[in-house]
Design brief:
The chain is α+β, with helices and mostly antiparallel strands. It contains ten helices and 20 strands. Among the domains are: 113 residues, Adenine-n6-DNA-methyltransferase TaqI, Chain A, domain 2; 152 residues, DNA methylase specificity domains (Adenine-n6-DNA-methyltransferase TaqI, Chain A, domain 2, Alpha-Beta Complex).
Length: 395
Amino acid sequence: MTLGNILTLQRGMDLPVQDRKGGTVPIVASTGVVGYHDHAPVKGPGVVIGRSGSIGGGQYVDCDFWPLNTTLWVKDFQGNDRRFCYYLLRSIDFSGMNAGSGVPTLNRNHLHPMPMLRPPLAEQQAISQFLGSLDDRITLLRETNATLEAIAQAMFKSWFVDFDPVRAKQEGRAPEGMDETTAALFPDGFEESELGLVPMEWRVGVLGDIAQTTRQQMQVSDLHADLHYVGLEHIPRKSLSLTAWGNAEGLESAKAAFSEGDILFGKLRPYFHKVVVAPFAGVCSTDILVCQPRTTEYFGVAAMHLFSETLIDYANRLSNGAKMPRVSWKDLAAYPICIPPAKIAAKLNESIRPLIARMTVNTHQAQTLATLRDTLLPRLISGQLRLPEAETMLS
């Protein structure tokens, strides 16, 4: 049996940016959702793989959608379980199927003749349910991390951007959500500065006053398979948590070393907003700045400033290079900020560090589940591993 006997792939449809109307229908490209439209040519749930640019992979789309012409989508599941078909496509190694001379390209006519096994429908459903439960657990862990990030951001904004505790005391009210000891650390008024009104006894400075970058490098001879490696491709956009990483085996140039808890800032194309707190020690691309607080009290303040939209906008304005814009630490260090006393900064740490610690645990759990899923996936699909054995391994 061939892949074409199990499902039928169809090339996606063009939809220029100027023709996109907005709405609730996801526009799916080879790299993921890239926008929304007001109507859908394909009923969900559906399955999409990358056809051009980024080839293969797999996306399971729960709702009606618009697959762009950089994708192939499953037009006909031929009575098979849809999520099983998603995992079936995920199990294929597309690396040797590039039909393009420049941009990587997949040809569906090369895919349909591929030999495949097709289990009975009931077994398909059991396999997809098992693998889907792993994906659901991974998704829950990542959603939990997003919630924890939002809590940290909200606290930082309230204390150090909107100055809510200071405003409350100025108006004779008790600051919300904090005990009397913490509230007593905040002043009850403002004073003029070059940044506008800032809390009394706080000082105006720059990011470099509280944070620094490390320049420790590891040479190729010191890189090995047991060393974690983080490239820009591993860092998600607008998330403090890593979702993937590699190892340093086979890297051909020196890399920057970092420690657990360091702040990794993607300096190439800073508008991608790639900033994470390292959940382990390792090495990273030299297009990533390794940042640390100058003193431990200012970890939270430094991390949240580096992660903020305002700093990303600032970095984007100062980046140099037409095709490959980069921002320097020298420019980031000059970012103007209002610096709280160390005791107040330390209080933020008391709340943020437990959140970061929990996010780190969740990140490791999600990676363990993802590794298990990726190990079991091809063996289940090929029939080399039976479902009861996989369930035993999971337990």
